[in-house]
Give the backbone structure.
Amino acid sequence: MHDLVIRGATVVDGTGAPPVRADVGVRDGRIAEVRANIAAGGNAQVVDAGGLTLAPGFIDVHTHYDAQVTWDPTLSPSSTLGVTSVVMGNCGFGIAPCQPPVNDILMKNLSVVEGMNLDALRAGIRWEFQTFAEYQGFLRKNRPYLNVATLIGHSAVRSAVMGDAGSEIKVPSSEQLGKMRDIVRDALRHGAIGFASSWSPNHSGYNGVPMPSTIASEGEVRSLAGVLGEEKRGVFQMAAGNKEVAFFESLAAATSRPCFMSTNYLLHNEAAPRRAVETLDACLDAQSRGHTVYGHVTCQPLSMDFSADDAFPLFSSAAFNRVRNVPLAEKAAVYASREFRDEWRANLKTAATAGIFSGNWSRLQVTVPALASNALLENRSIADIAKERGRDPLDVFCDLVVEENLKTIFVIHAFNVDEDAVASILQHDACVIALSDAGAHLSFMCDAGYGPYFLGRWVRDRGDFGLAEGVRRLTSHQADLYGIPDRGRIVAGAFADLVLFDTATVGISKCVRLNDLPGGQMRTIREPRGIEGTWVNGVRIQDAKIREANGIVPMHSGPGMVLDKFK
């Protein structure tokens, strides 16, 4: 007998096989059969798909839900956007292990490096754990709506062992390094999916201090990642900064474990138009030598909203250390100063292309002017305004910031703007579609809807991918590379993680701002388009007919599992 039968769906099974019209029967949270005319019987719930497309739920391998999951088991908005499994702790920014003296360090750093509101973190995080194993136990007890896998994070580990010194001392003592290795090993033995770190120049913590992992030596990273090889389990993920593929290949060779890099080098940049493909080519060369190296790549244009009081997209320029380290009341004076402007102008002349902003003022626009007298500037680029006024764009930007007392809302269209160029990146065999950063940067952006965006834009509208291959690239591809068993496929025996959608309308909304974080703080979300239902382990968590909370089905505890066993 079945618990659930979904009738008359166009089934795209995630393997790359052509779509078929079939019923799907679910029993005890797993897919029991896929065929025509399944008899429901008993008390089975029957859903008439009416020819809509049924696919495996999307597997998002690059999220930062580690903090949010402690107060929001729905993992909104991913649970509304077709995602059924997430990997948390990317770039090494987790919240376990922790102890009361370290908790505030972790929250302060997350508030900057991941654009998370500090008041919301302090009001929301439930610190009912200290070790990684206890964090896993907390997740099991509180049952999230989605399946969750967690990376053990380098910065969290460094902070746990070294405290504030984790952002100050580049070389730990041998005793400290030994403790860090022990923590990584213990986490792997308690179900961590791998180890994550960052060397990104864009990753700074509270008051401009470096995130702990970013000052670590190559030897330290090799030692900690080496535990993966010793334990013969887990993946390595890193925000690579300027590090080349050769480093990741050497780690993959030494550990015999998969390595995944995320870097601005893997985004299309008009200043270096061939760099992303060349980086992925180097990953493919490593694979040809038997070393598993892949790149995380976003399928969306990378755009960020910001205001000058927290100008995160501009922080790769050293001049912004002057802004970050002063009280809000003094920031306008810094923007007005000739010293700041001259330093920023010099930074842009030598800007590394790994930075988010390298001086293309046509990509930086005024979204919402703060003063009615500036209403005509709305949706105009700084380059356009500067040309009209016959002035330097950097001075135009700074003058507007000062005039509107840092309240102007800007948007920067940083990378992946040229879709024809982006298509060749997404189609590359070394590309993993990922990098949603869901749970982070909530005041700047929301890329959690990358799955429906990909199906709407790259599959339906542009036709760069067929439907079967498009679904595979969002589901079984990730599951196989990360060793997540029985997920990402609609086949008998697999867990019933499913998403039902309309290929004609699937997509996402523009950014929507809500004040629903702990303490009433603001965040940015995307709303689904064309997604009719989502099931996790056979339980429906999202229904387009339910309008409250974007269709989330209210329940006492979620059906998600803590993923802790991997191939």
